[in-house]
Amino acid sequence: MISKRMQKSLEEAISIRDIFEEGKKLAAIYGKENIFDFSIGNPSVEPPAIVNDTMKEILDTQAPLALHGYPSNVGHPEVRQCVADYLNGKYAASYGVENICMTSGAACAIALLCNTLLDAGDEVVTFAPYFWEYKSYVETLYGKLVPALCNQETLQPDETTFRAAFSEKTRIVLINTPNNPTGAVYTEESIKMVANVMREMEEKYGHPIYLISDEPYRKLSYGIEIPFIPDYYDDTIIVYSYSKTLSIPGERIGYAALSPKMADVNEVFAGLTASMRYMGYVNAPSLQQKMLLKCVDAAVDVSVYEKNRNLLYDSLTQIGYECIRPDGAFYLFMKALEEDDWEFCQRAKKERILMAPGKAFYGPGWVRISYCVPYQIVKDSIPAFKRLYDSYQ
Amino acid sequence: MISKRMQKSLEEAISIRDIFEEGKKLAAIYGKENIFDFSIGNPSVEPPAIVNDTMKEILDTQAPLALHGYPSNVGHPEVRQCVADYLNGKYAASYGVENICMTSGAACAIALLCNTLLDAGDEVVTFAPYFWEYKSYVETLYGKLVPALCNQETLQPDETTFRAAFSEKTRIVLINTPNNPTGAVYTEESIKMVANVMREMEEKYGHPIYLISDEPYRKLSYGIEIPFIPDYYDDTIIVYSYSKTLSIPGERIGYAALSPKMADVNEVFAGLTASMRYMGYVNAPSLQQKMLLKCVDAAVDVSVYEKNRNLLYDSLTQIGYECIRPDGAFYLFMKALEEDDWEFCQRAKKERILMAPGKAFYGPGWVRISYCVPYQIVKDSIPAFKRLYDSYQ
């Protein structure tokens, strides 16, 4: 007998799990290469060679007991320094080792920050559509996620819905740019609006409101500058993952970077440290931490994703689909051809196309196409997308 | 500004953090080798060579994208099968792949299970003294930890306090044998008592009460048989970590094994799967999972710890200290020489001996000595323990 809240959550989640299950079934029937599986965000570009080379070098040269022993909860100091140096060099920031907490990916960092900052019933504002697990991270710690709907033409933050989302219980605003599920990169204008409204709300409610910037896709952008959020708002915490940058999502390594300018920075860091223990993490995997000493500025070949993006966007719009041109990440958000995006996804399966319905992201009427797949799959899928489109005419 | 509950928790935790900080200061003044640091449970025996050899072989032979990609939330199926086979072979059990969830260590597994099984205010019973983080795992998920004091002569579970700890809100009993902090191994008689009382309470309250058996020290026992808990109680979940068995606590790898005989096993497994996502874990580190395919039955040289245990126990009792002879783990529980165990630890520092006060483990009047240190440190510490003892006569 599981808890009532878990029972409720599992019932709500069934629709999403169904996509993956049906995908597996289809692959079993038709063969994996004959399914256009755009349903999940699993990187498709090889990790840079330096990743494995570094791991092997560490295993060959470092004393195993120390290498695999407990680091501090917040990580190896030299690794934290290395991350601080990287950020300072790239963004002219002034992070110190005391501002960096190594985490088991960005999801871990968000969960830890929810545990650090939220009492029961406290609120987290995020822009919708949003990555579906955001709700779970917040609700697991008894908080409440409050979505602010983006402008439905541009998928940029909208000032009116954003303002309306605040209350005296708001402790966190959680943003994600480049965005999952939309592929949108927030413009500098959007970031300035977010920062201005947040400063006003801090003033109004008389307490800090932290901006958590979830940035696993920062290095996956296509010819566009991504504003460095702490330059616009002091109370900013960057949460980062190497999952996509290095194509190592199974290894769970990332960090939280607390702006040295933010309110109560030491107190929040202490809470983060304690949360590493309280939530059972203890520390981010030691070998993966040490790997970063050589790989902190490495990255996968992003042009592979860009090539997919170009072919898919151009082809789909040419067919007649309405899409937002994604500037980053590896997702394309497309309008469904009927009101019910779930039904649209069901119909697409007849063409062996698997997509995630927008409903799952609080973005009803849309679908998410994850184009982190081999180029050939994108190419082969175009006639199927054409047939799907024609079936609605 | 952090949450009120985190603020409260950090204030309560200060005393424990102080030990570690003072230890570092002492080491800086006198040199690490001149400090008898028995304060923390960091393994001191080299990992078996097969651990690093296997990791290197995997890195050399497996396709990086698949190796470091996302496995299922619950882990690679072949690794889960390997763990099931190991348990079935060793204990004549009948685990299937569907009963094993790979986790980022045992702490992770306990936290996930609390999230799966507890609604706010639900209760978890554990035997005191207990590992201090147990309280945090439970309270982080808004549960309540209810301690049942062990028999103070034997440090075995006590039936009277155990019975008194139950209420209609009890969902979990959490046990740890071999035990941190006491080093006690629960006897078969103790386990039978626990199982009988729990069956009675399940009957009385009309719902399953799950026994979580936290077993990171199972392979660290000295000539004593450790009962296999699922043989005594159907609703048992083993949570295991390779941190101590393979001396790799920094890498965070372990599992939860749900007895095929337990109530609502599939529902609990689904909750565990969802909790991997909801708490931000996503999956246990992929490389470390695959390492287990060759290392599932490897273990460190336990005789090193046993040698420390023998010298320390014999010497301390000869001096006149009152100790419980530890049958497993690498902890020795010793009576403080004054009522206030914190003050006793402070006084021991004058002899450069660092120990953890029993208060921190809900075991006031005792101290925990972690003997996972070089043999020479144990040897050199004996005269210091003698001087400490004499100072009280």
Automatic annotation (TrEMBL), chains A, B:
Its EC number is 2.6.1.-. It comes from the Bacteria. Keywords: Aminotransferase, Transferase. Its cofactor is pyridoxal 5'-phosphate. Pfam families: Aminotran_1_2. InterPro entries: Aminotransferase_I/II_large, NHTrfase_class1_PyrdxlP-BS, PyrdxlP-dep_Trfase, PyrdxlP-dep_Trfase_major, PyrdxlP-dep_Trfase_small. One of its GO terms (molecular function) is pyridoxal phosphate binding. It is an enzyme of class 2 (transferase). Residues 34-371 form the Aminotransferase class I/classII large domain. Belongs to the class-I pyridoxal-phosphate-dependent aminotransferase family. This is Aminotransferase. It comes from Eubacterium oxidoreducens.
